[in-house]
Amino acid sequence: MPMDEKTKTLQEDFEKNFADLELVIGWETGFDRLHATPVFIRQPSELGKLVWNPLCSQNLSGYLAKNLDASIQEDGKKIGICVKGCDSRSLVALIQENFIDRDRLYIVGIPCEGTVDLRRLMHLKPSLENVRKVDIEGDEAVVETDQETLRFPIENVLARKCLRCLYPNPVIYDTMIGTPLKPRISEDKLYSAVEKFDTSDRKQRLAFWKTEFNRCIRCYACRNACPLCVCQDNCIAESRKPKWLTQRDGIREKFLFHMIHGLHLAGRCTECGE
Amino acid sequence: MRGKTFIAHDELPEVLERLSKTMDVWIPTAINDEKCVIQFLPYQPDRLPVLDRQSTMPPKKVIFPQVETLLHFSRKKDENDPFKSHIELEDEEEVSPVLVFGARPCDVRGFLVFDEVYLNGPYKDPYYAKRREKTLFATLVCETSDNACFCSAVGSGPADQTGSDLWIIPVDSGYVIEALTKRAENLMPEMGKDATEAQIAEAQNVQKKVAALHIGEGDLTQSSDDFEDRFSDNEFWRDMAFKCISCGICTYVCPTCYCFNITDEAKDLDGERIRSWDSCMFNHYTREASGHNPRPSKLERYRNRIGHKFSYFPKKYKGMIACCGCGRCIRRCPVALDIRNVVLSLKKNKENVDV
Amino acid sequence: MAFIWPAAVPNAGNEIPTMLIKEKMNQILKDMLDYEAGIDAEAKPPLLTFDPGETGI
Fold it and tell me: 276-315 in B: which are within 8 Å (CB) of A?
């Protein structure tokens, strides 16, 4: 199903069911057509804002656990939420851990062909102006601007997580928009990056992480965007009691923070890539 | 006063090399030549400046490092009475002169906000002052903007020379350089050859063309009263801040955000007092020792971010707003929260909030 | 010397590949416990030992 049609179906579905909903969480067009941004809709008249396209990268399930009391049912009304395949796995993890009550949700699942990593796109085409539309057609990402139509092989512009995605289809939903898709890779290729990484020796790996983590600015965007990082304001990365990390910006701190983040997600991370 | 000079593209590394013999020259540069993350780093022969786009991180850290040691302390035990000890303190060392080469007008404008707080108030911050005094800015007239840029909407513009010491204008075959301040003049002999008439004329055209550009819509400078009217409109702030995930990236990439935290990081008898960037988006930013937090949720925190930049700051500092329009907070925000939209919305539908 | 990304999984621009850490853990989890996170809402995650009612979370 083409992207515009999916957007329309999405809007119509919520319109049909809005009487039972107090809030709809989805995506809308951001400050330009190259950016999508989360939107929280409380009035049916605003449902026209909803969009679905390959720029809808944000995983919205985190808002349920962190910002909304999604466990208490008041007037029987539900929270409507849009999820991609990966997002739906986060929902499942949050439901398993009792952060969200399944009955409180109306889940609209969208089979996803992958999301575009804007950093990768902008790297290939730094001066991308007047974008009208971004879509995925088979193995190509198509960017329409006022002037031209550009085509990029998906392996150059899709988010890395999407190129190794085994679950393009939502694993939990009330309504599915469109038809299920085939994963882009086979299961035996899932950990090929890790396997390749394991072949390098310890010194190489340390050097790699030192270079990579050097860029970290400890802004905690990775932590706060993570739907499963539910401690948020009480993270031991910042607490002074207990004190695990100093406020310094050295490699030691950054390295330890990312290891803590990683280990706290052991058995929980659904690889949504946020 | 010496006239304008010209640096050809292939002579630029040579010039930077020469300059870096007498001072630290910071340039916007990309690690691994990928141009994905551009940050300001001291010039080295294997580091080339990236001047064709805005840097990911502003040059804020050149004068206001993300972490800086204020002093070292060590406890010395009394030889005669092991229960007694005294503390020895040690200050930081001198700083060397610095040239920031290739910043943009918005980057430099950030420091004008800093100056009000750190230099021109009743208290002068010695750590900031010593670096600020010794730093010169060679600023590039800005020919590249995107949909997140809005420097003209905050009273600046892509050809705004305020705060710069040297002015760089890209022309076809290189760069025309002009000294704007007295302290920059001694550097001019190092800045390439004298520019020809034709090069100067070409540069003037570029300057004129860029000065005519208006980047960003509307005027965000007169928003103080609107903010005050909105202050207690909780529904408005809930809608504005709901998508915010309370990370600190907007404040860390902001050339004007100047808040810091001070912590003592000690082990056994020795330690350091360090100052590090803080972010008003973090919950613990206003958490008090008692555990009480006057800004307990992101609603209050986000409202404060807007209020500080567009209302409290201009009230206190001659109408200057604490935003330089560089657009980094919009571009880098994981959820694409647009500060312009929030400020412009302050005015809209005051009776009936609808955003 | 530096680690090169496999061609099939190119380096995603400027992102710090923190996902690799999580991928490694999930690989171990799959090998040892045959478990994948976030698939079955009824399943009990094998490493779920903390109490969400714990104060401060």
Answer: 276, 279, 282-284, 298
